[in-house]
Amino acid sequence: MPFAKNTSLDIHDADVGESHSVAGPGASRRGTVFLDVDEVLCIGQAEAGWDLSRTFARGQAPDRHQLATLFSPVARNALAVAHRRSGGAKYVISSSWREHFSREQMVLVLEGAGLQFVGKQPANTC
Q1: Does residue 92 form part of some domain?
Q2: What are phi and psi of 60, to 5 degrees?
Q3: Cα–Cα dist 67/8, whole Å
Q4: 31, part of any domain
Q5: pLDDT (tens digit, 9 = 90+) per residue, 62-91?
Q6: The predicted structure's pLDDT at residue 105
């Protein structure tokens, strides 16, 4: 079903008992998405974050294959659809990954994994 103009998508987080709204195209609010990585985008890959951390610690950048297979295609596509429907939501990385990677490294990972719309935000919003 298409996302209607000037409407919002309400998302309820049962774990914390909170609801969030993401505004639709043309609405006055674009919304903010608090984005976790482990078991949200990076599903079933418990060592993926550590592998990336070791790669960066060696002074290397992750290769294309490592980044392309990092996030679940289903999760990546669902986030892309939600982003389009929101009219351009802002993202806050609410993951332990933000403690292990610099902003530049996170941007490299997000963009390399096909989530350019998350990585290309101004520094004060990510």
Answers
A1: yes
A2: -110, 160
A3: 32
A4: no
A5: 999 989 889 999 999 999 998 888 888 888
A6: 92
